[in-house]
Design brief:
The complex is a heterodimer of chains A (320) and B (264). The N and C termini of chain A lie far apart (42 Å). In chain A, helix 4 runs parallel beside helix 5 and helix 5 packs across helix 6. Chain A is of the alpha/beta class. Chain B is of the alpha/beta class. Helices cover 22% and strands 34% of the residues of chain B. In chain B, the strands form three sheets. In chain B, strands 4-3-7-1-2-6-5 form a seven-stranded antiparallel beta sheet. Chain B has a seven-stranded mixed beta sheet with strand order 11-10-9-8-12-13-16, sandwiched between helices. The two termini of chain B are 32 Å apart. The mean pLDDT of chain B is 95. Classes of the chains: A alpha/beta (320), B alpha/beta (264). At the A-B interface, strand 5, strand 6 and helix 8 of A face strand 14 of B. The structure holds flavin-adenine dinucleotide, flavin mononucleotide (FMN) and FE2/S2 (inorganic) cluster (FES). The site of flavin-adenine dinucleotide (FAD) has 22 residues of chain B, from strand 4, strand 6 and helix 2.
């Protein structure tokens, strides 16, 4: 059998392979350009950018946990103006897809940033980080209700020249409901999951470990949660999904695709092994040979949806 | 290339019950290392602990490199069990280096405990690579107690003036190494003649920078702190920029900073 096809097309954009890097774990690509061959990646998702530059939270900002980490970086970023001026020229030179992650603390902040990026070349897609509190209104996160997620998505869809990937939070009662709302609002695709809220405390000083008290849990510890959320959303919407959460190697990539992801993002794994993405792309070739699949897109949703798995829809209690 | 998936332990010395010196074979890394550079070493094959551990390079001679560390938690405990022959996955060399002293300047090394490795490497580097006169280096070594003196073996073998302080007064100056510096050096040295280099616990370096700034002495600090990635992308190793509402990344912008640049 010849070498399997690793390329995937979603939202009219062709990706060399399904492997992207997750926002906040890969900077703006510059550091990793010196370490790995970025043209081996399907794409790069840049650190969340906001209307204004943000210094981020005072340290400690991170805490190692069992098979993962907590982070409360505080969306430290250079702001959209400097991003366009200083980071885009470099990103444009790269032979890989560029997805720019946008965050905001009010509807106006999101729309401002998305509009600024409309005039910028070299961007293939925007990922919208909706796990931010709407400080301008009730202070609740845009990701926390279907109504808010729908409003934000449809507003941004009206103005964005770029396809929109809406990044969902797992810290909600029903992620499928939020996913459907974003789809109805016009999302071109969805990425999930962002980090799970967690915290650490020092048993000698009685103080929280992170200055911000709570932080986001990521890494292999959250992989089973991520798989479940992706499967739930896969059963609820018809737009492509991008799987995130604890992915460490090519076999994790395969698992995320099997439950419904078209593409995946590597986050925390980049800290453990900076060449994990390149190695995973290589590993996928061998894996596909093993399972006798010639085109990786055949993996997407191969496990099947609710109906195929359960045979019939009988009610079940969670966990048992 | 910073990837060194198989560096091999070739020598091990137990300097103290809780302090180990390891020498590794790893030419790619050793040949490019300069003082204050560090490595990110993966101590466990699995996920426990998941992150690499940052360790200063104690010395590198082109083919081998060394590290000295204290056992403080899970990662260093695993590393302390390594015997010759054992291989590790190491990223490095990482980080910047110290600025060289001017010809007429004395280099004053202020080491707090296991912060001494980058200062040992730098002293040796000045002597061997820059023909820096040995008498123009002064090494101030702070320890908790006299029982820790074996960790200073390499430093003592350099043949440079070394002064000790102990927290309990059991050897050398009684007090912190910053007190030793303030009492005996800061006041006596003309400012254009000395340049301070330091590495140690943060409270120590904070105190030292206060002294250096008040005497207007040039002072460089090699900072420590938790480092999830070590390559500049997680933004976890933040240190405050002095007088600005912003942060440096210790791993990428440092680990060496001028005392006036950072707020500890
Ligand atoms: C650039 C750099 C160079 C370093 N060089 C050396 C060296 O040459 N020799 C050496 O012994 N150590 C050095 N360290 C510190 C070393 O990295 C930590 O001691 C180590 O990561 C602890 O890992 P652990 O799993 O054993 O401890 P953990 O279980 O992670 O922590 C145990 C205890 O140590 C504290 N701790 C953890 N990490 C650090 C840290 N980075 N700095 C200070 N306290 C910490 C924790 O708060 C905790 O109280 C360096 C750190 C940096 C950033
Ligand atoms: C240090 C760190 C910083 C992050 N910053 C962002 C960010 O700025 N925007 C965002 O949408 N997600 C951010 N994330 C979340 C990741 O993109 C990803 O969704 C999450 O970490 C789960 O994937 P992982 O387990 O592979 O890391 C960050 C994660 C980490 C660990
Ligand atoms: S350790 Fe990640 S940015 Fe410095």
């Amino acid at each position: 059998m010849s070498i399997a096809n690793l390329s995937i097309e979603i939202c009219g954009i062709k990706f060399r392979n399904p492997i992207l890097t997750a926002s906040g774990t890969f900077g703006y690509g510059e550091e990793f350009d010196k370490i790995i061959d970025l043209s081996k990646l399907g794409g790069i998702v840049t650190k969340s950018i906001t209307k204004h530059p943000r210094p981020g939270h005072p340290p400690p900002r991170t805490h190692e946990t069992s098979a993962g980490m907590l982070n409360a970086i505080g969306l430290a970023n250079v702001g959209v103006d400097r991003f366009i001026e200083e980071k885009i020229p470099f990103l444009k030179t790269l032979d890989t897809r560029i997805i720019v992650n946008v965050a905001g603390f009010s509807m106006e902040e999101y729309t401002y940033t998305v509009e600024r990026l409309n005039d910028t070349d070299g961007i293939d897609m925007l990922e919208i980080n909706i796990s931010c509190p709407n400080v301008g209104a009730d202070g609740l996160e845009f990701s926390s209700s279907a109504k808010r997620a729908h409003e934000l998505t449809s507003e941004l869809k009206k103005i964005s020249r770029h396809p929109l990937m809406i990044k969902l939070s797992p810290n909600v009662t029903s992620i499928a409901e939020i996913a459907k709302a974003a789809e109805e609002g016009g999302a071109d695709c969805l990425s999930l999951i962002n980090t799970l809220v967690g915290m650490g405390v020092n048993h000698y000083t009685f103080k929280p470990i992170l200055t911000n008290i709570t932080g986001g849990l990521s890494g292999p510890a959250i992989k089973p949660v991520a798989l479940a959320k992706i499967w739930q959303v896969y059963n609820a919407v018809n737009i492509p999904l991008v799987g995130i959460g604890g992915i460490m190697d090519h076999l994790d990539v395969a698992e995320f695709m099997i439950v419904g992801a078209s593409l995946v993002q590597f986050g925390t794994a980049n800290f453990v092994n900076p060449d994990c993405t390149v190695k995973a792309a290589e590993g996928l070739v061998d894996y596909l040979k093993q399972v006798d699949i010639s085109d990786i897109s055949e993996l997407i949703g191969k496990m099947g949806g609710t109906y195929e798995i359960q045979g019939k829809n009988f009610p079940a209690c969670q966990g048992t | 290339m910073i990837f060194n998936p198989r560096v091999k332990v070739v020598e091990k010395n137990q300097l103290l019950p809780d302090m180990v010196h390891l020498k590794f074979e790893g030419e790619n890394l050793a040949s490019r290392a300069v003082p204050a550079n560090f490595v990110q070493i993966k101590v466990a094959r699995g996920l426990d602990p998941i992150f690499r551990r940052p360790m200063s390079i104690h010395y590198a001679d082109g083919k081998t490199f060394e590290m000295v560390f204290r056992t403080v938690g899970k990662g260093t405990q695993i590393l302390s069990k390594a015997e010759p022959g054992k291989e590790f996955d190491c990223i490095g060399p990482l980080g910047n280096s110290f600025r060289l002293p001017e010809n007429n300047e004395k280099a004053v090394m202020v080491a707090g405990g296991v912060g001494f490795p980058p200062l040992y490497f730098f002293s040796r580097f000045l002597i061997e690579k820059h023909n820096f006169p040995k008498d123009n280096i002064i090494f101030l070594f702070g320890m908790k107690t006299v029982a820790e003196k074996p960790m200073a073996g390499d430093v003592l073998s350099l043949g440079i003036p070394v002064e000790f302080s102990t927290d309990d007064g059991s050897y050398g100056f009684h007090g912190f190494v910053t007190d030793l510096f303030e009492a005996h050096f800061a006041k006596n040295m003309r400012q254009e003649k000395i340049r301070i280099y330091s590495c140690g616990p943060n409270p120590m370096m904070k105190r030292l920078s206060q002294i250096a700034l008040s005497f207007k002495l040039p002072c460089q600090l090699s900072l420590e702190g938790a480092m999830p990635c070590g390559v500049g992308t997680c933004l976890g190793c933040a240190v405050k920029k002095r007088g600005e509402n912003d942060y440096y990344r210790v791993c990428q912008d440092g680990p060496v900073f001028n005392a006036e640049e950072v707020e500890l």
